[in-house]
Backbone:
């Protein structure tokens, strides 16, 4: 197993709130996890789950109430560590008065690069995110998607070892999302470590070596997308068509019709009797497939159980 | 110091592109108008009137920029979240703060220098050749610039821990109190008990003494500004601004950027 690039130990964050800030709201609770060198790690959770809080803690934009974290073996308090990190904030916004090329040059200067090196890297990064033709336009005229691309460019500009992206697909059209996916895969190919947060589960399933699911400030599980959803089937699905003269039969009551096609879901044990019925009725079987839970099912189950728990606590409190 | 310089030059660029220097047009119009009117009605004291008017305008416009842009330097970056990507670079928060301060100080220096040129042009219009004492005006302009850099430091300190509105209120409040700091120290015989008097006097020494930067009366009447005052004010500004900025850096270094 590769060495961890990001190590988080018992990280918690509480925010004061209420009158005089006397009450505490816990946004993150004892989060411990590791992201290994060279992997793409997806941080999943609904809005307000604690994904951005975790990322902001790693980027020292906010400070933990307790716990520690290290990136590339160095404490997150060590500013020099940021030479090897790229970060895309959620819904990024940059200086209105700069062009994309000026913005990237500005950020590149903090990395101590020479003028010619900066020029070359800025060109390369702009090309990679598809902003080459818009590089001389001031950012105030950029759309949300273009700002997202500019944000991605500044995150990868200096060739960081670890890239942290907060909702990188947000605000992008399907083409833009595909380009971001390609960039993430390219980063992985180059041996970089990528941690990105998202609530778009298909992106996570497609890109991630491992995912971590966070709900209500608590990490609910870490594993490969396959491990997270389990390998057991949830039943079978049969897709079939009937000719016009077919008689009614029991299975038809359970089926849903879409156009000319029928779809029926049933337990695995009932598959063969169902196929017999279809054969007897002269149905044309189009497909028989195993029903597996998706990451989305897993995710929704967690969110639902979390909501059920919260309401149970509220009911018992009243 | 490279990081501080990078932030400072970008802040200067922001001020220029946000048309902060457009105030110079207002100043130029004011000076032109004043030169025409004063030339007709202030026989014998034209230079004195122009100097008073010009220095007041330089000071008021400068204070306006120092307070409003000074407060916005940090709060705007937090509100718009432009700071997030920047702080993920190898940049210390104090470097960001000092860079922002340096950038606005650069802007104010260019702005004040341009206004000083305008003032000299107006002085030359009403009376030429200029009196030798006219060069004392430069010293007065320098002291105004020192005052402005001190105001920026205060504006930044307040904006590090409170809302922009309150930061403006606090900065203006401290400025007004600082103008009267000397009067507060001399306060006596107004029926207050000795403990209160002691507190007010002690507090007045904590306030920045802005009265020390006002030499308009001297230079308007062609009198030299003592060199000792210039040195003292320079040193005072350096030390006071350093303390205020250090406090701002301490507050800002632990601030959660939600």
Residues:
């Amino acid at each position: 197993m590769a060495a961890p690039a990001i190590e988080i130990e018992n990280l918690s964050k509480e925010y004061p709130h209420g009158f005089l800030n006397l009450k505490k709201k816990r946004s993150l609770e004892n989060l411990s996890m590791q992201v290994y060198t060279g992997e793409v790690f997806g941080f999943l959770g609904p809005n307000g789950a604690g994904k951005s809080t975790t990322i902001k803690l790693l980027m020292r934009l906010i400070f933990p109430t307790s716990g520690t974290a290290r990136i590339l073996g160095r404490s997150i308090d060590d500013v020099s560590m940021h030479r090897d990190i790229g970060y895309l904030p959620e819904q990024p916004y940059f200086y209105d008065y700069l062009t994309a090329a000026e913005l990237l040059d500005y950020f590149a200067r903090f990395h101590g690069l020479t003028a010619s090196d900066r020029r070359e890297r800025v060109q390369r990064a702009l090309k990679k995110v598809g902003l080459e033709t818009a590089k001389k336009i001031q950012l105030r005229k950029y759309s949300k998607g273009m700002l997202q691309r500019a944000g991605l460019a500044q995150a990868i500009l200096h060739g960081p070892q670890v890239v942290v992206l907060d909702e990188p697909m947000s605000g992008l059209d399907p083409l833009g999302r595909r380009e971001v996916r390609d960039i993430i895969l390219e980063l992985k190919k180059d041996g970089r470590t990528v941690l990105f947060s998202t609530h778009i589960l298909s992106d996570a399933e497609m890109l991630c070596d491992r995912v971590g699911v966070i709900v209500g400030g608590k990490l609910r599980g870490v594993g490969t997308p396959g491990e997270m959803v389990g390998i057991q089937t949830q039943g079978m699905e049969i897709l079939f068509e009937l000719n016009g003269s077919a008689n009614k039969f029991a299975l038809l009551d359970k089926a849903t019709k879409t156009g000319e096609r029928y779809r029926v879901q049933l337990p695995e044990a009932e598959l063969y009797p169902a196929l017999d019925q279809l054969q007897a009725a002269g149905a044309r079987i189009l497909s028989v497939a195993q029903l597996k839970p998706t990451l989305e099912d897993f995710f929704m189950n967690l969110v639902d159980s979390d909501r059920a728990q919260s309401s149970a606590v509220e009911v018992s409190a009243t | 110091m490279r990081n501080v310089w990078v932030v400072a030059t970008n802040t200067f660029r922001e001020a220029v592109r946000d048309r902060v220097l457009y105030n110079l047009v207002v100043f130029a119009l004011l000076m032109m108008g004043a030169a025409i009117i004063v030339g007709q009605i202030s026989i014998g004291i034209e230079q004195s009137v122009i100097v008073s008017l010009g220095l007041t305008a330089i000071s008021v416009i400068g204070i306006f920029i120092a307070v409003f842009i000074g407060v916005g330097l940090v709060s705007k970056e937090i509100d718009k979240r432009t700071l997030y990507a920047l702080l993920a670079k190898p940049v210390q928060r104090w470097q960001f703060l000092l860079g922002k301060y340096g950038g606005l100080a650069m802007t104010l220096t260019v702005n004040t220098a341009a206004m000083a040129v305008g003032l000299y042009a107006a002085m030359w219009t009403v009376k030429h050749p200029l009196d030798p004492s006219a060069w004392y005006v430069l010293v007065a302009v320098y002291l105004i610039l020192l005052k402005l850099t001190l105001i920026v430091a205060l504006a930044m300190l307040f904006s590090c821990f409170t809302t922009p509105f309150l930061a403006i209120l606090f900065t203006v409040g401290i400025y007004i109190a600082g103008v009267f700091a000397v009067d507060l120290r001399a306060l006596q015989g107004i029926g207050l008990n000795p403990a209160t008097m002691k507190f007010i006097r002690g507090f007045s020494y904590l306030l920045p003494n802005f009265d020390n930067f006002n030499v308009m009366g001297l230079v308007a009447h062609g009198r030299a500004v003592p060199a000792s005052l210039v040195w003292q004010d320079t040193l005072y500004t350096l030390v006071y601004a350093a303390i205020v900025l250090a406090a701002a850096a301490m507050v800002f270094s632990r601030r959660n950027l939600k």
User: Anything to note?
Assistant: The mean pLDDT of chain B is 88. The two ends of chain B are 28 Å apart (CA to CA).
